[in-house]
Amino acid sequence: ARRGTAAAATAAAQRAFSTPQPLGLDAAHETQAGEVVGRERLKGAYLIDLARIEPDPNQPRKKIDPEYLKELTQSVRELGVLQPITVRYVAEVDRYRIIAGECRFTAASAADLPKLPCWVKSPSSEHILLEQIVENWQRSDLNPLDIADSLAVLRDGSGFPQAELDRRNGQTPGEIR
């Protein structure tokens, strides 16, 4: 049964990210007159083999709550991955490295999905860490020590003053001092 669910999730993801259909609408969908107004196709969305994706060893989140991961894995088995993860291509290892979405990746692996919907980006090192911090902070509680360590690396590596860190991460100054 798990394979059938994984196959259904993969098929749904392939339909959602296939290029012939506008924004994941299947061929049976009849476009309404106002439906395409203000809409444009997104670039950089792909289904990538799970075997070609790897976690970032510098990910700010060091631990994933096992109960959360269990619930997410069950959701992925039933519904597939509802939001693509964000990756970047690393030529030195010929793989895609996760920028945001390691929990979704781990759940997809546990659910035996063969492919994962991904946004492919090419950000700077500073921007990768900033995006990882913001992603983890917004999605679920990140360990305060992991936050502090990551912000120190970002501050020291980028030379951002405290006010710039405040502005870029979307948190109030009191939350990151």
What keywords describe this structure?
177 residues; alpha/beta; five-stranded mixed β-sheet
What this model shows, in words?
It is a single chain. It contains seven helices and five strands; from the N terminus they run αββαββαβαααα. With 177 residues, the chain is α/β, with parallel strands linked by helices. It has a five-stranded mixed β-sheet with strand order 1-5-3-4-2, sandwiched between helices. The chain starts with a helix and ends with a helix.
Quick summary of this structure?
The protein is built from seven helices and five strands; from the N terminus they run H-E-E-H-E-E-H-E-H-H-H-H.
Largest sheet: 5 strands, mixed
| SS summary, helix count | 7
Mean pLDDT: 75
| Strand ordering within the main sheet | 1-5-3-4-2
| Gross morphology | globular
Report how far the terminal alpha carbons are from each other: 49 Å
Could you outline the blueprint of secondary structure elements for this entry?
Layout: H1 2-17, E1 45-49, E2 53-54, H2 66-79, E3 85-90, E4 95-100, H3 102-110, E5 115-120, H4 125-139, H5 144-158, H6 162-169, H7 173-176
